[in-house]
Structure formats: structure tokens, C-alpha cells
Amino acid sequence: MKKIMNAGLALTLTAVLAACGNNTSTNNTGTNNAAAPEAAQSGEPTELVVSTWGFSEDFFKESVYAPFEKEHNVKIVVEIGNNAERLNKIRQGSSDVDVIYLSDYYAQQAINEGLFETIDSSKIPNLQNLYDIAKAPLGAEYGPAYTIGRLGIAYNPALVKGDVTGWSDLWTKFEKNLAMPAITATAGPMVVDAASLAAGNADFNEDTAFTKLKELDSNVVKYYAQTSEYVNMFGQEEIAGGPIMEMYFKDLQAAVPDAKFIAPSEGAYAVMNTVNVVKDSNNKELAEEFINWQLSDEVQAASAKAKVDSPVNMNVMLTPEEAVGVTYGPDIIGKLRKLDMSFVNEHITEWTDRFNREIGG
């Protein structure tokens, strides 16, 4: 049986040390090692269309878009929507997007459908500063992950049976007060894999995973599609917790100060957002410059300190206070479990049908 993930992703210590000690020789702004496209050097601004989710808009306008616009004589136009909406626009050819931010699950679909340009890594020198897991999550010809979150378990200690330490505890320490991701949510396939682990499989086994998920169903209050649903139920103590991305834990803790977030002993899951160049973009070189800027020390550090995105650039150094709620550092990132998104996309339709038929239909 094919493995669905690679556990304990290795990060070489030498790469980490080299990156941390080499700040002065690397290209941090995206302008020193690669000349900007001629069209962006003078005259009327070049329009670069960026497709993204729309969260933290003020931060992106001030800290990401504005400096790049000034440096390259560019006007950035933003298209906003969720992953599915924005990917469908690309499929239909109904937008002029140059650069698109997508979760790795949706980005893999775009790659399978030939919707992305291949990248020239020599035009993106900041790739060398990234953790290995982020450099080419979907293949060396395509864009990097610009941020990595982790899916773990959050819980209210007052409403569960003892400490929660692993994925298997979802089956033993929650009683009719659990929230689980919907099968179609970003974390849905991760929970299928976690169920296989909880069933005692070293390699992914679909049948035992679904049997295990069916055992859990009676304790599930809600299969949530939107994180806001989880946050609201948690604050009102309708649920004791369940799997959630670490970046949302601050919202849970604001409502329940004693709330806890844990990376399960079997490993938390890497949740990666990618940035790519859309097929037939008229601004490919400029788009690659923009990706390089997104990976720069400056943007990555600012994003992390603002609690907008966790950094993938190894040069970023955070204080303990700045790192709270952020997926940060080689010790944490090196232990993340990474799903094989090609495998997931091959099977997600049948998993969705099976889930709806046997569990959440």
C-alpha cells in the first residue's frame, strides 16, 4: 500500500546553520541578484494581477505589495476568493492572474491540469534560504510554499478526560463534544491519515481509516468546513476541541484562556500554502521577482511577527514571545508529517463519496 505521507521530514543541520549565518551574502529583497524586468524599470507601471484569499489585507498592502510596487514600478491588482473559487477562474480563463496563492491541495490540482508555468529557480534566489520542505513541495518545476502551518489538536482541559497527547486520544478523551474537519476541508485528508495512524498502521490503510472514523462519529458535534464554526462552538463550550490549525489557536485562547494546543505525538501535519505563476502570464519574469520578494527575510520576518504567516525562511529569528502561535524553527518543522498531494488528489473523490456514504452523509 502506498504511503500517504512522509513522517519526520529531515532538515539538514548544516543547511540551517549556513542559512542562519549567511544573511549578508544572500538576496533578501529580490532585487540584488536578478535584474528587474525592463518593463518595470521606467515609464507607466506594469500591472501584476495577484490572486489570494483576502485575509490580513492591510498587512499585505503595506508590507508586501507597496514596497514591491515602488521598487519595480508595478501596480498590483488583487483578486480575492477562496481556493476553489479562484482556481475555477483560472480553469475557465476568466481572469488575467499572473501570480496565485493556493493551498498545496489545490495547487496540485492546478499542476495536474497544466494551469501553472514552470519556474526558473535561478530567478528566485531566496529559495536557497527555505527549509527543505518548503522549497519544492509539489515538484522542483513549480512554486514554493511561502508559509507552513501545522494541524494539531486544540482542547479545553475542563471538558476532556485528562491530557490530550496524540491523535489516538480523539477516540478516548472526548465524549460527544468533538469537532472534526469536513472531508472536503483542507484538513479532511489529514484526518483520514490520522485515523489510519490511530488504527495502528505504519503505512496508510484506507479501510481501517474509515472504520476508525466511523467509530468516532457518535462523539462528533460538527464536521466543520469553516474555522469560524469551530472557534464559535469552542468559545460557547459546545465542543471541547478537535483538530485545528495552530494559527487559529489565539482566537480559541482569547475565548478560553486555559485552552491548550498540542502537536500530537505521532506528528502534526504540515499545512502549506504555495505561490505560483499562472500559465500564459505576460509577466512571468516579474511574477518570479514577486515570489522572490515574498520569500525574502524582510517579508517573512514581518509576516511572522504580525502573526499573519509562519515563516519558511530559515534566516528569520523570532523571540519566544514572537514565536507564540507561529509554526517556527527546525525542531518543529522537521517533525511535521507531509501528505503526498498527488496521492490525495487521486483518491479524494472516492474518499469524499465514502465519507458521505458511511459517516457524515
What does this structure look like?
There is one protein chain. Helix 4 (104-112) packs across helix 13 and helix 6 (188-198) crosses helix 7. The protein has 13 helices and 11 strands. The model is unreliable at 5-40 (pLDDT under 50). Strands 2, 3, 4, 5, 8, 9 and 10 form a 7-stranded mixed beta sheet that branches. Strands 1-11 form a two-stranded antiparallel sheet. Strands 6-7 form a two-stranded parallel ribbon. It is 35% helix and 17% strand. The chain is of the alpha/beta class and 361 residues long. It is globular and about 65 Å long. It has helices at residues 13-20, 57-72, 83-92, 104-112, 132-135, 188-198, 206-216, 227-235, 249-255, 284-294, 297-305, 330-333, 341-358; strands at 5-6, 46-52, 74-80, 99-103, 145-155, 178-181, 220-224, 241-245, 260-262, 269-277, 338-339.
